[in-house]
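Risk register update: the risk of archive-format incompatibility is retired. Evidence:
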Amino acid sequence: MKAEIELHVYYDGGRLSAADVYNVALHEIGHALGLGHSSTREAENGPELMYPTYTPGAIKMTPTTLDAYAVATAHRWAAMGAFVRPSSTSVELPIGIPYRMLLYYLVEVSSPYGEVHGGGWYMEGSKATIYVEDTVVPLGEGVRAVFTGWGGDVSSTSPRVAITVDRDYKICANWKLQYYVDIYTPYSTPNVSSGWYDEGSTLKVALVDYVVDHGNLTRRVFSGWRGDVEARSMVVVVEVEGPIKLEASWRTQYYVEVDPGYAEASVESGWYDRGSTLEVYALSGLAAHGNGSRHRLVGWLVDGALVEEQPIELRVDAPHRLRALWVAEHLVRVVVVDAAGAPLDATVSLQRGGSTVEAASGSTLWLSEGRWRVACASYVEEPRLSWLSRGAEAVRLTAEPISRYVEVEGPGELYVELAVDRVEVYVEDLLGAPCPLVTVRVDGLVEATSDLSGFAVSARLPIKEHAVELYMLGAELGEARVGVGRALVRAPISLYTLAAAALALAGAWRLLKGVRS
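Archived output:
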C-alpha cells in the first residue's frame, strides 16, 4: 500500500507551527490506514486525532485508544494472510478500555494541605515539574502543617522536583503537623524555648533557677505551672498533641529580720510569703543574768518605729526589720544619807524616761541602768530636846538632794545625799550666860525649853537659814535666824544673870549698911 500526502504550512490565519503540521500529517496518515473521522472531539486526556476539524495551536497529538482499536479491527485480516472486508464501517471501544490518547501519561499530584502544582497529562519523555506553593500552611491558631517531602512514586524532601514522564505517576505531598508551645515565665529562664514543635513530640520543661533573689530583701520563688498543664512539680513533661500555653507561677517573698536580743522570739528571721501575717513576740520579757543584773523588754523597733505592746501583728507586704529593745536593770539598795553621811529615814522619788519610782531608804529594788533624777525627797526626824522639854514628836521634812542626779551603773548600794545637817540650838543672854527656861520654836515645827546649860534642841534640818522664836512665860522675847551646826540665840537676860545681880545687890546693901553703922 502506498499513499502520498501533500501538506501546506500556510492557512487563512497564518503559518502553521511544527506541532500543527505534525498533528495534520498524523491525521492524514490515519486516513491512509483506513480510518475515517471520529464523532468525538475529546478523549479523556486530550483531543481526538481523527476529529474532522482542527484548530491550530493544539498540543502535540497522538492516536487514541479508539484509533488504535479501529486500525486493529480494519487490518485483522493480515493475521489470516488474505484480505477480508470488515463487516462494519464503524467501531466502538469495548467496555474496559479507557478512551485516552496513547503515549500520554497521567501525573497525579495530591496534598492534604496547601496547593501543589505540576499534575496532569504529559507526553511520554516530557519533563514535569512538581512543586508545593507553600512549605508552611497555617491551619488555625497555634496549628500549622510543614512540608516534609514527596511520597508515592517520587521520594524527595525538596519542595520542587522535576521528573521525566515515562509512565503514570501518583505523587503525594507529605506533611507534619506542628503546634505552638508558648512557655512564659516573668523570672528565670526556661530550658525549652517557646516555638513550634512536632505533633507527638515530648518536652521536658524546667527552669534554670527556681529562686530569683533581687538583692533588695525581695525574692521570687517558683510555685508551679499553670495554663494547659497544671503542675506543682519543678519539671513538667508535656506531650505535644495540640497548641499549649504554659506559664510558670511565682510567689513573692520578703525577708523579715527578727532580732529578739536577750530572749527567743516566736518568729525567726527568714523569708515569708507576701500577704502572710506573723505574730511576733518575745517568749520572755525578762532576762536574768544571776548576778544582780537583768534585762527587761520595753518594746520593739519595727522598721524604725517604736511599738511598746506585744504581740505584734505584722503583715508581710514589704521587707521588715524588727529589733527588741531591752534596758539593763540592776538590783540596788537605796541608802539615803545627810550631808555628814549619816543615814536618814527618808523616801526619795526617782525619775527616768517617764518612769517614777518611790524608794525608801534601805529598800531593795530593780532600777534601769543610767542616770536617774532625784525629783524630791522627804525624811523623818525625831529631834533631841532638853530635859526640860516635853516629849519629842517625829516630824517629816522635805529636803533637796545635794546632787540632782544619781547614776545606776551596776548592782549594789545607791547613795542619795540630801542637803540635811544637824542644827543645835543653845540660848544665852546678852552677857553670854546660859539662859534656861526659854521656849524655843524652830521653823514653827520643833518646840523645846532650854535647860540649865542653855541647850534647847538638836535636830537634822535642811541646809538653809532657819527661824528661831524665843518665848519666856508666854512672852515673846524675840526672833533669830540660824544655820546648821551649833547655834547660839540671845535672850535679854538669863536667870543666872538676875541671880548674880541680886546677890551683888544684896552684898552691896550689907556693905553699905556696915559703913553706915
